[in-house]
Amino acid sequence: MELYGYPLKAKFNQPRPPPPKVLPATSTMTASYKNRIPYHPESFSMPWMPDSYYKAAALNPTLSPLTESFPGLPPTKIVPFISERPNGVFSRHSLDDWHRSNMTNYKESETTRHNAERLRADLTRTIKDVYQQAKRTQGESTKNLGERVNDIEYWKSELCIELDAMIRETNSLTDMQKRLERALADTEGPFQVAHKCLLNREKRMGIDLVNDDVEKQLITEIKTIRSCRERLQQCLDTVNCQLMCNKEARQELEKDLADKQMGHHIDSKCYQLKNTSRGIHYYKGVERVDATVSVPETWARFTDNNIFRSQSARATSAKLRASTESLLMGTADEMWRQFSKVNDAFTSRITETANAKSKIQTHLAKTRQEIFQIETKIQVIQKTIRDKEVQLKVAQTRLDERTRRPNVELCRDAAQIRLVQEVNEINETLRNLHQCLRASEDMLQMLVRSKGVLEHDLVVKNNSLFIDQERCMGMRKSYPSTVQILGYV
């Protein structure tokens, strides 16, 4: 497109030639940009131009009225007018200035490169010395950390061995304590049972209130159980004290082991840290903080004392377990012999009451079965009544709707007659069903009353059996065996 009527600066609107394929050197490009005004994108349509362009563009050239000189041309075809000034619109440097500028840039670049080469050589030597010194220092620190890790692993193994032995001994003594507690708890039941048996036998009526052999054996059993409980309680107190000593020694071992595991973890982590490891940071002033509380001698002595204390506690605990085992066996045998004597006195008294109770239970089961069947019938009758009521609603609704027929349509036809008969039949059926329901409910009440009589009689028989069989023998059947008294289960 050809432009007309613009000043001389319009020549920069022509497309720029393509850039060369080979880029110039960095130093040459840097020198060429000196003393140039940077590009500010006030107008994105204007290409980058040197400062002289902006100065020339700032001028406002005046144009002569071309329309008067060329009256025959239209305004769009007017040839642009070029002003001819002596100094020219654009200022230029001389060729000597250009050569001197290039030579200055070359010399400055060579001097800078020479200084950079000397600095790089000095830095290479310094970095090499620093690297060797740091590697030597870091190697010594790593070696010391490795030795420390080995020391911690040794004491950790000693602590683990002693801790395992203490745990086994504590578990054994804990089992013995549980056996003592179970044995003592098991004696509480028979002791209460013997007292309750004496109190329950006081509720016997009539001739049954006799001072028989059962009562004598119960009194003897109470005395025996009381003596065994006192001895077991004393032994249990001793075991509890020893367990406290064992737990204290174990806690010291576990605390020491936990500290060593934490220290081992930290020192191992420090031992494995490298310059390429993740998680390394600056901690300014940390080298001036001294948080140590021990030296290697006191550190080793502390663990050795904990191990010696644990060994002493284990020896005492083993002796106590042996004495407790013999006590359990003696008390269990003594209590079991007296328990068998008392149980033999209760057997003959329970047989007659049990037979009567069995007969009452038979009649009661039959009555309950009949009650279940009559209740089922009542439910069936109730469902039938509900169904008939729905059918009655349908018939009455039909009759009600038919009363709305207009004029002569109110005919007493066969449908009307049958609907009236249906309502009467359903009402009669409902009356019969309600009578059956009342009769069934009355029969149910009679059966329930009969069941109540049988249940009351059964309660009377159960009360008789409850004193001897449930309260006395029932509680005595739960008396632990010799194995249970010894605490093995």
Keywords:
single chain; 489 residues; mainly alpha; 0% strand; flat; cell projection; ubl conjugation; cilium
From the structure provided, what is the oligomeric state, counting identical versus distinct chains?
single chain
Helix content: over 70%
Shape estimate: flat
Query: Beta-strand percentage?
Result: under 5%
Mean pLDDT: 77
Main sheet summary? none
| Class derived from helix and strand content | mainly alpha
First-residue to last-residue Cα separation: 112 Å
Order of helices and strands: HHHHHHHHH
Radius of gyration: 58 Å
Q: Give the uncertain stretches in residue-range form.
A: 1-15, 19-73, 75-83
Number of strands: 0
SS element count, helices: 9
Please tell me about this protein's structure:
Helix 5 packs antiparallel against helix 6. 73% of the residues lie in helices and 0% in strands. The chain has a domain of 105 residues. By secondary structure, the protein is mainly alpha-helical. InterPro entries: Tektin-like (IPR048256), Tektins (IPR000435). Belongs to the tektin family.
